[in-house]
Amino acid sequence: MSSPDDRLTVRRVAIVLGLVLATLLGLALLWAVRRVLVWILLAAFLAAALKPAVDHLQRRFVRRRTVATLLVFLAAFALIAGVGALIVVPLVDEVARFVERTPEFVRDIRAGRGRLSELVDRIGLRRYAETHGEQLQEYGDRLRQPALGLVRGALEAVVGTITVGVLAYLMVLESPRMGTALLALTGDRVGARWCLVGRECARTVTGYVTGNLVISLVCGGLSFVVLAALGVPFAAVIALVVAVADLVPLVGATIGAVVAAGAAFMHSPTAGIVTVVFFVLYQQVENHLLQPVVMSRAVRLNPLTVLVSVLLAAELAGLVGALLAIPAAGILQVLLRTADLPRLLHRGRR
């Protein structure tokens, strides 16, 4: 017969193994639904940013929350679509013009005429094409293979965008009912405190969105001034692309700089060099001065916390982490302040 100590040991081992297996199963489940979790997180971010506008519209002008929510979301998506049209339409026109002139460019390159032919000779592309013809043909064949994957990725992006929009709409629409349910579940005093926490978190997200838009407008405006002064064609469109790309913390200015510098180099080497120098200097100012200062006032975080949060989140979660780092840090600060952490620590010592 086994002793009580042996049975107790077996029970403890079984409990530990069960906890380990449950943890692994939970992590595997989270990994399997990670895409949906990202959609929900982005939807919550969008809902928190638009909820104050819906509340204000409902209090002042529209009584029904359904109508107020619909109007705010339509206005937001109309603004996004308008900005996208301002960027996409000129780019599509330019691509169409380039496609129409492609045969002419090819004839000029083969005949050794024009600036494009000089550029091809200067960087050695003609010699490389002549000596690596079969390799280039193989690369072209490989590029045709992932076309189905690109189409599938584009469809998934469209489905994800629609899903995030619908989730955010429902979150904003149902927020009063969720608040009422929270009050009924936790009691008036605790529920009112959590509702206050929710409003503070929404204010943090709204402040982040506002601060990010201000920084992007500054970047786009300065880019337009520099490009227009250098005589680069379509300076306004390029500056708009730069402003939209700059919405992404840390790396956004670099993405916009690549687009602007490429257009400037196509205009002239001098314009390209000046543009590169401008963006190198501006990105340092934005990352280490403008963004920390503006975000510290918009989200009420000190500049050091803003910079450290973005750097750590970008390293851990990439682009999504960089986008959500500052509002996440602001929400964490609200939660810690609401929990009255110094009082809890003092009670723990006692």
UniProtKB/TrEMBL annotation:
Q: Which UniProt keywords apply?
A: Cell membrane, Membrane, Transmembrane, Transmembrane helix, Transport
* Protein name per Swiss-Prot or TrEMBL: Predicted PurR-regulated permease PerM
Task: Give a Gene Ontology cellular component term annotated to this protein.
Answer: plasma membrane
Q: Which organism encodes this protein?
A: Micromonospora inyonensis
Biological process annotations from GO: transmembrane transport
Q: Specify where it is mainly localized.
A: membrane
Give me the segments passing through the membrane: 12-30, 36-54, 66-92, 153-173, 213-244, 250-282, 303-336
Subcellular compartments: Cell membrane
Per the record, the domain of life is Bacteria
> What is the membrane topology listed in the Swiss-Prot or TrEMBL record?
Multi-pass membrane protein
Q: Which family does it belong to?
A: Belongs to the autoinducer-2 exporter (AI-2E) (TC 2.A.86) family.
Give the Pfam families listed for this entry: AI-2E_transport
